[in-house]
UniProtKB/TrEMBL annotation:
It comes from the Bacteria. This is Glutamyl-tRNA reductase. The active site is at residue 50. Residues 6-156 form the Glutamyl-tRNA reductase N-terminal domain. It comes from Alicyclobacillus hesperidum. Keywords: NADP, Oxidoreductase, Porphyrin biosynthesis.
């Protein structure tokens, strides 16, 4: 069996193609149904957002499953299989599991660390679970995926350090005025940077956002999304007196915010500070404003320090999340190995109990004078012998199998104890028997781990 992910995202495909392949409603249900009825796909989860469409699958043939999924998505979306194959990626084994975890943590998002994707991943898994598309393997895997995603949100600040100029401006404004709650913000320009600044300000809890633009219709469209008030550029001078923060991002020739406008706006403010953030090139705000009392003017160059600090801190936080991902993959691999060793442990315990039971029956036959109390004492002590004899070998074969990711240890162990409960698909298992004999002492004695443990074969 193999774990794979077949998908496309903003890293691999343009937005117009992602829109066509995006799955929702009946299309999502149709794809899950087709995957559930496939002989080559054993378990599956489909994640589809505005920035990615991905099929996670447990398969018995990577090549056949990859082709099946491409064909299914082509037929569902109306995009040719050739066009899809040029923009879709295939990840297998450990890379597929790690990718799922990185996606859930927001490391693969446009805005690194964004939290919405974790809820979308949870919903995708829940939908697949309710459709009957998941089994023991994916139930456990996505439990680990969601756990790692939750840890990234609660134990790090990876999503709190965006590196855009717009966010840096909002962050700086918040520091200067001591928080944005209850403040009035004026954003001039409804282009990409202005719109982003307006959205950040709204998300940070400002009392009111005023969005001015040369084209009122464009300002109105964005304002309606975030609960802001739209106005034309002609209205900027009149509302300056109400603003605590001004973010200007038009990039038009000449100064959109003149020193005379700001000087007039200061009348009647009673010393209330005015923060001017010029994120346009060429600059929108007259540099002479910096000399006015209680006015704090910053341009793009001033924001570079904030951006650099965010870049460094985000990299540090992302490294912490990557460590969580690695630990999550390791935990899932250990679980896979444990599931395959469990039958051996159960069989070994059953064999020990059967031997103890036979011995007890023989003793009772040969010593009929034993009282019920004597029989209970003998039963207790013979079971203790069995448990003590098996405890260390069982623990060690479990640890060795997990540490190596190699079921040949368990297979050899089963052969030594005459148990036919562990199967391995490794054709080279017999040829490695001699090499494994030298570790038998570790199975029956003490185990010491050196270096990094190997992963379960499903993840290789």
């Amino acid at each position: 069996m193999h774990i794979i992910v077949v998908g496309m995202s903003h890293h691999s495909a343009p937005v117009d193609l992602r829109e066509r392949v995006s799955l929702s409603g009946d299309a999502h249900s149709h794809v899950l149904t087709q995957l559930g009825g496939s002989r080559t796909v054993l378990e599956s989860v489909v994640l589809s957002t505005c920035n990615r469409t991905e099929v996670y699958a447990l398969v018995n043939s990577t090549h056949a499953a990859h082709d099946f999924i491409l064909t299914l998505l082509a037929n569902t979306s109306g995009v040719s299989k050739q066009d899809l194959s040029e923009h879709m990626y295939l990840k297998q084994g450990e890379a597929a599991v790690a990718h799922a975890m990185r996606v859930a943590c927001g490391l693969d998002s446009i805005v690194v660390g964004e939290t919405q994707i974790l809820g979308q991943m949870r919903e995708a898994f829940q939908t697949a679970f309710e459709a009957g598309n998941t089994g023991a393997m994916f139930n456990r895997m996505f439990r680990e995926v969601l756990h790692v995603g939750k840890r990234a949100q609660t134990e790090t600040t990876v999503g709190q350090h965006p590196v855009s100029v717009s966010y840096a401006a909002v962050q700086l404004a918040s520091k200067i005025v001591g928080g944005l709650e209850g403040k009035v913000a004026l954003v001039i320009g409804a282009g990409q940077m202005g719109a982003l600044a307006a959205k950040h300000l709204s998300a940070q809890g400002v009392k009111r956002v005023l969005l001015a633009n040369r084209t009122l219709a464009k300002a109105s469209a964005i304002a309606s999304e975030i609960g802001a008030q739209a106005l034309s550029l002609d209205g900027v001078e009149a509302v300056l007196k109400d603003a605590d923060i001004v973010v200007s991002a038009t990039g038009r020739p000449g100064h959109t915010v003149r020193a005379a406008y700001v000087r007039q706006a200061l009348v009647g403010r009673r010393g209330r500070p005015l923060v001017l953030l010029d994120i346009a090139v060429p600059r929108d705000i007259d540099p002479a404003c910096a000399a006015l009392p209680n006015v704090y003017l910053y341009d793009v160059d001033d924001l570079n320090g904030v951006i650099d600090a965010n870049v460094q801190e985000r990299a540090r936080q992302a490294a912490l999340v990557e460590d969580m991902v690695a630990a999550g993959v390791r935990a899932f691999s250990d679980w896979l190995t444990e599931q395959e060793v469990v039958p051996l442990i159960v069989a070994l315990r059953q064999k020990g109990e059967a031997i103890q039971r036979d011995v007890m029956e023989s003793l009772v036959r040969k010593l009929p004078h034993l009282s019920e109390r004597d029989q209970k004492i003998i039963h207790k002590h013979t079971m203790s012998i069995v448990n003590q004899l098996l405890r260390e070998p069982i623990q060690n074969v479990k640890e060795l199998s997990i540490a190596s990711g190699d079921l040949a240890y368990a297979s050899l162990f089963a052969q030594l104890f005459g148990i036919d409960s562990v199967k391995t698909d490794d054709a080279a298992a017999e040829s490695r028997a001699v090499r494994l004999m030298d570790v038998l002492s570790r199975v029956l004695g003490e185990v010491s781990h050196q270096g990094q443990p190997n992963l379960h074969p499903v993840l290789r």
